[in-house]
Amino acid sequence: xxxxxxxxxxxxxxxxxxxxxxxxxxxxxxxxxxxxxxxxxxxxxxxxxxxxxxxxxxxxxxxxxxxxxxxxxxxxxxxxxxxxxxxxxxxxxxxxxxxxxxxxxxxxxxxxxxxxxxxxxxxxxxxxxxxxxxxxxxxxxxxxxxxxxxxxxxxxxxxxxxxxxxxxxxxxxxxxxxxxxxxxxxxxxxxxxxxxxxxxxxxxxxxxxxxxxxxxxxxxxxxxxxxxxxxxxxxxxxxxxxxxxxxxxxxxxxxxxxxxxxxxxxxxxxxxxxxxxxxxxxxxxxxxxxxxxxxxxxxxxxxxxxxxxxxxxxxxxxxxxxxxxxxxxxxxxxxxxxxxxxxxxxxxxxxxxxxxxxxxxxxxxxxxxxxxxxxxxxxxxxxxxxxxxxxxxxxxxxxxxxxxxxxxxxxxxxxxxxxxxxxxxxxxxxxxx
Amino acid sequence: xxxxxxxxxxxxxxxxxxxxxxxxxxxxxxxxxxxxxxxxxxxxxxxxxxxxxxxxxxxxxxxxxxxxxxxxxxxxxxxxxxxxxxxxxxxxxxxxxxxxxxxxxxxxxxxxxxxxxxxxxxxxxxxxxxxxxxxxxxxxxxxxxxxxxxxxxxxxxxxxxxxxxxxxxxxxxxxxxxxxxxxxxxxxxxxxxxxxxxxxxxxxxxxxxxxxxxxxxxxxxxxxxxxxxxxxxxxxxxxxxxxxxxxxxxxxxxxxxxxxxxxxxxxxxxxxxxxxxxxxxxxxxxxxxxxxxxxxxxxxxxxxxxxxxxxxxxxxxxxxxxxxxxxxxxxxxxxxxxxxxxxxxxxxxxxxxxxxxxxxxxxxxxxxxxxxxxxxxxxxxxxxxxxxxxxxxxxxxxxxxxxxxxxxxxxxxxxxxxxxxxxxxxxxxxxxx
Lengths: 433, 433
Fold this sequence. Notes:
Two copies of one chain form a homodimer. The first copy, chain A, has helices at residues 15-26, 28-35, 54-57, 68-72, 90-99, 109-125, 143-149, 164-176, 180-189, 198-201, 204-218, 237-246, 307-327, 365-375, 406-417, and strands at 6-11, 39-45, 64-65, 79-82, 103-106, 130-131, 155-161, 228-229, 248-258, 262-273, 285-292, 296-303, 342-343, 350-360, 380-389, 394-401, 404-405, 422-431.
C-alpha cells in the first residue's frame, strides 16, 4: 500500500522545535519530493509558554496540545520528533513513542548519552529506528559518518571541539588577552552562554557528546560518568600568553582513544600546536577530527549548535525515518550494546604537560623542581623563567615536559606544593601533539 | 528468505581493487557483523599484469578471470564493485551489471561525472543501487552527506580543494619558494603526480569531481564540459611571494555556486585569505566547504586519494549495498535528472582579481593602467610596485581589484597588452573572499 503522507508528531516548540516546524512547513514541497509523499505535521506537544512565540502564532492552533496523552493518542503519526531537551520528561516520551513502535527522531544529547543503549535496544525490539544526528554537533554530519561512511575503519582516536560556548570564550581569551570571567560575561551578553553556564564551562555538555561519539566509534558503551571531565575556568590570560610564546593554542578538547585493551575518554583544556587544523577552529564553530586505520585523518567542521543548523540534522533524520516507513524497514543503524571495553583510569593516561609555577626568586629553585619531576620519571622539554614581582622576590616558571604518566605528574604536583620555594602551582594543562 | 551470504564480484585488482580485496578478506568478521551475514568475494576480473601483485598472490587464483563474459556469468554475485578506473571498459561493465539488476559500487569519477545520470536512471529502472562515494575525495564522506545529511538545505556554494597532486605542488611552491616545474618534479618523484600529470595539473580531475558534487548538491545535471577549467602551471614563485605579502594563500579551487537563476561552476587557481580554513589545507589533503541555508558552513577534510582511504569509502558502499540486498530494496539515493539550470557563462562571473604586470619603469605608467581598468568599471583596491630590473628599466606592478566582471577584466587585459608601457601581463589570478 502506497503511503499518501507521513504524519509527524513534534514534541517541543521552543527554539529547535519551532525551527523544525518552520522548515517542515516552508520546505514542504522540496521535502515531499525527497520522501515521495508529503510530510504532514499532525500534532505538536507544547508548553503554555511556547504559544507566545512567533512560530506558534504562525501555525494552526488546532495542532497544539499541552496534554501528553492527547498527543500520543493522535492517529496517523508515523514519526515522533523530540525537541524538548533535558532528561525528563523527554526520556518518558521517547520510551512511550518507541514502545508504541513509532520511528523516533531526537536532538537530545543528554538522553542519548545517558540512555542511548536502552532506547536503541527498545527501538530494535519494536522494529523501528531511533535517529539522533542532531544530538551532536548541530548540522555537522557526525552520527551518520560513523554509522555508514567510516564503518570499515577501526577508529583509533577522536579529537573534538564540540562545545561552541567554551570555544567562543577561549577564542576571546586568546585574541583579546582577557581573563575568563570577562570572556564568559561577553559570551552571556551575546547569548552564546546561558545564565547558568555550568554544563558548558565544566565540560559536561562536551562529555555527553563524547559519550555518544565514542560509543558509536568504538562499538562499545561509553557512559558520561566514564569520562574524566575538567572545565576551562582555571585558565588565565597568562596561560594564553605562554601558549602563544611556545607555539600552541589552548582548546577544550573531547578526546577518545581506543587501544586493543582499553578506551580512554576525557574532556579537558589542552595545548595543541598552533599550526594544527583544530587550533584554527575559532569562535562558536565545532570540529571533530577522527583517525581510522583505513581513512587516516578526517575532519568535520561547522556550526555545532543553533536552531538553523540543528534543524538541518533533525529534518535529515525525519526524511530518513520517513523513507524507512515507506520502505517498511526498521533502522539499519546499529549501536553495539556490548558490555564495552575497560575504561582506562585517568591516572594511567600518558601525555605531555604544561606547568606554570609561582616560585621564590632565589638560586637553586629550578634545581629543586627538576629533582621532584625527575624523581617521578618526568623529563623536562623546555623552561621559561620570568621575574614577575621584584618586590615580593617571586618569579614565574613555565615548564613543558616530555610525555609522562598522569599518576606520576599528580604525585609530583603534590610534592611541589610542599616545597617552600614553590608559592603556588598556578596552572597545569595537558598537551596533545 | 534470509540470505546466507552476500556475493561480491570485483572488477580490477590494481591499487584500489587490491586494497578492497584485502579489506574484504582481513576484516571479514567485522563486516559480517555489520551486514548480518558474510561478504564473500566470488570472482575478480583481472588484467594479466594484476596477477603479479602481492595481493593477487595472497589470494585463491580460482577467483580470477581475465574474461568479462566468464566474470558476469558467475552465479551468486549480489554486488558488483568496479575499481578499474577510466571510461572504457568501465562504462560497459557498469552498464552490464546494472542491466542485469545487480547493485553496483564504483570508485570511478570519470564515468560518474560523464555518465552518472544515464547510469543512475538505469539503476532506478532495474530497481538497484549505484553507489559512488569513493569517486570523490577518497575516504572523506562527501556523496552521502549530500544524499542524506544536508538534504534539507538549499546549497548556495561549494569550495573544494579536491585534487591532492596540485595541492601538494602548490604547498611546496608556497613553502619552499620553488617554481612550478621543480615542484611538479618532486611530486612525481614521491609518486603524488603521474608521469603524465595533465589531468591533475590542468584541473580536469577536479572538474570531474566538481561535476559530481554540483549535480548532487544542486539537483541539476552539471557536466564536466560545463565547467570552466584552468590549471596551475602558469603560477610562478613570485605570485606566492606577493600572495603572502597581501595576506593570501594560493589554492586550486573547484567552485560551484547556485543562485535562483543559474549555476556557476569553475576550477582555477585562486587567492584565498591566509587565515581561512581552506588556506590551511596543505599537502595531499583535500577539503570541501559547503554552504547551505540551514547548516551554514560545513567543511569536510581528509586524504582525498590513496588505496587505504578509497577502500574505506568503497567498503562502506559495499556494506550499504549488501544491506539493501538483504532488505530487498533499491537505493534511496536520488540524483534528480532534471534538465538542469542554466550554467552561467564564465564571462558573467564576478570576482576580485590579482594582476601582476611587467611594465616600463617611467612616469605615468600606473596612470595609464588605472585608466584602462577604470574604463571597464574595474576599481583598484591596492597596488604594489617594485623595481625589478634597473638595467632594463622595467618594474613589476601588482594590482588587487575590487569585484569586477570577468568579461570586463578580459577586455581590460586585452587593452593592457596593447599599451607600449606594459611589457607583459605576467599573471592574473581570481580572488575568493
